[in-house]
Design brief:
heterodimer; A: alpha/beta; six-stranded mixed β-sheet; 26% strand; B: mainly alpha; globular
Chain lengths: 249, 289
């Protein structure tokens, strides 16, 4: 069963294609890395799928039904830089936002929801920071708060936008552990990622993207030197030694 | 002293004080959201832009009717807000410049209309002046009822949608992702700002009503790191400023109410800037030494 199917998705910025006729599908229970050079449209792809930005064409189906009807099944971890961390709120409050979809309009979170959010913070090792103002958290801790929020949402398909950027080792481990857990629970995870060295360790599926999908499939099949060359074009040289390592591994 | 007590016990004074508390509280509350959305200046532009609306209504209908003034104010205020956003969307002009242009054009036009009224309506401009620069002493019970009712609606709406407004401002992308109509909440917030500006100009005046939106939340932010507390505290600061400003104004023989209210809020802001428990300058200095 495909958890996610994208058909004919196109996005333009200033009359230039940022994404052109994107088609791919992702099997249920897979961990997919979205790989591509800067400006390839990786974050744009996630935002277009989630309807956060206008698209000129495209259909998104989640578990066989249109995304609009399946919204509650989809979770999102935005880039850390997209919010104002000076906002007057604490870690627990941010995690509670993950429950808003379950709580419904106007109603306030009850004790059960607060406990749920606390449990989610605990799972990412952040329970002692529940009351901490979010600006007083480190970059990695902020990322873990976002993870806990996604966890609180209890979705089936997760999109994460560069979760590994600027985080400490503990956070990196927390993210990987969480992704594995989600996979074991049959959940599907798509991650914008740009560290080519770790692709093989983290992801069982890959989407190689440069304005349009170059390849999409199991990492062992598509993560090849040849395909990377086609994805990165001339800029492949920056791979340097990794290239040898990847071919060997 | 007994004179002052007499004055306090007058029914009209009590009404005016009640109105100023509710108005101050509502604007402080809304101001917290506006400040965090970084749209304080849009509120300022909106307030200035109500002037031509009020004057145009007066010229066209040639009556001093508060409800008509409010309608005129709301029309040009909304038009200005729309123009600011349209300019940003359809040109390379950034928000700050767009606000500057729209604010000065509307306010300039308002001043022209005001001058025209003074010269052409046989000097019967009194009442309009008070409306524009804020004069609590001139208000009667029915004016206050409009202010109180409007403010109350604004307080209730923002309390009901507190959670939705919070997430729409803090993380609009995520809010959209979980299916919240973020643009609807932006619209609601805009509507609340128009509401407070329109009901508040009579007491505080078009020039300074925006200060009542901006200053109380700025002061409140120095005391707390939680949005709920900040919004409540900001409301209280607005309410206190409203009452104290109105008291001085009505007791002090025709001093303008708006400026006094804003001065009160500014004093509270200065105190918060220095002594605020969270971000105050003194506590910061102590922590770094």
């Amino acid at each position: 069963m495909n958890a996610l199917t994208i058909q004919n998705l196109s996005v333009t910025y200033d009359k230039q294609y940022a994404l052109e006729d994107v088609n791919f599908s992702i099997p249920e229970g897979s961990l997919t890395g979205i790989i591509g050079p800067n400006g390839a449209g990786k974050s744009t792809l996630i935002k277009a799928i989630l309807r956060l930005i206008p698209t000129i064409s495209g259909e998104v189906t989640v578990y066989g039904k249109p995304y609009k009807k399946q919204r509650s099944l989809v979770g999102y971890v935005p880039q850390r830089s997209e919010v104002d961390w000076d906002f007057p709120t604490n870690a627990l409050d941010v995690v509670l936002m993950g429950r808003y979809g379950h709580i419904g309009w106007i109603k306030r979170p009850n004790k059960k929801e607060v406990q749920y959010a606390l449990d989610c913070l605990k799972k990412v090792g952040m329970e002692e920071f529940a009351d901490r103002q979010i600006s007083q958290l480190s970059g990695g801790q902020q990322q873990r708060v976002f993870l806990a929020r996604a966890l609180a949402q209890d979705a089936q398909v997760y999109f994460m936008d560069e979760p590994f950027v600027g985080v400490d080792a503990a956070t990196e481990r927390a993210i990987i552990k969480l992704m594995q857990e989600w996979k074991e629970q049959g959940k599907t995870v798509l991650v914008v990622h740009h560290d080519l060295q770790t692709v093989k360790d983290y992801f069982d599926h890959c989407l190689l993207l440069n304005k349009k999908p170059i390849e999409c499939g199991p990492t062992s099949d598509v993560f090849t030197m040849d395909n990377l060359q086609r994805t990165y074009g001339g800029s492949i040289s920056f791979l340097g030694n990794n290239q040898v390592m990847m071919q060997g591994g | 002293m007994s004179e002052f007590l007499n004055f306090l016990s007058s029914a009209n004074t009590q009404w005016v004080l009640l109105g100023s508390i509710i108005l101050g509280f509502a604007s402080g509350l809304i101001g917290s959201f506006v400040l965090l959305k970084k749209q304080s200046l849009i509120g300022d532009a909106m307030a200035h832009a109500t002037l031509p609306g009020v004057c145009a209504v007066y010229i066209i209908f040639n009556v001093k009717s508060i409800p008509l003034f409010l309608v005129g104010a709301a029309c040009t205020g909304l038009l200005a807000t729309y123009l600011i956003q349209a300019i940003v969307k359809h040109s390379r002009i950034k928000t700050d410049a767009s606000i500057g242009v729209v604010l000065s054009v509307f306010f300039g036009f308002g001043i022209v209309l005001l001058t025209y009224i003074t010269k052409n309506t046989k000097g019967n401009r009194s009442g309009l002046d008070e409306f524009i620069f804020g004069q609590a002493a001139a208000m009667v019970k029915s004016d206050i009822q409009v202010i109180a009712l409007g403010s109350l609606i604004i307080i209730i709406v923002s309390a009901l949608f507190f959670k939705e407004l919070k997430i729409s401002i803090f993380d609009p992308q995520y809010a959209k992702g979980i299916g919240l109509p973020v643009s609807l909440f932006n619209l609601i917030l805009m509507g609340l700002v128009v509401g407070i500006v329109v009901v508040g100009i009579q007491m505080v005046g078009v020039v300074l009503i925006a200060a009542l939106l901006i200053t109380p939340p700025l002061a409140a932010r120095y005391w707390t790191d939680r949005l709920g507390r900040m919004a409540f505290l900001s409301g209280c600061i607005g309410g206190i400023s409203g009452v104290v400003g109105t008291l001085i104004s009505t007791a002090g023989d025709g001093l303008p109410t708006g400026p006094l209210i804003v001065l009160c809020a500014s004093v509270i802001f200065l105190v918060s800037l220095l002594f605020g428990a969270r971000k105050g300058l003194i506590i910061k200095a102590v922590r770094t030494t």
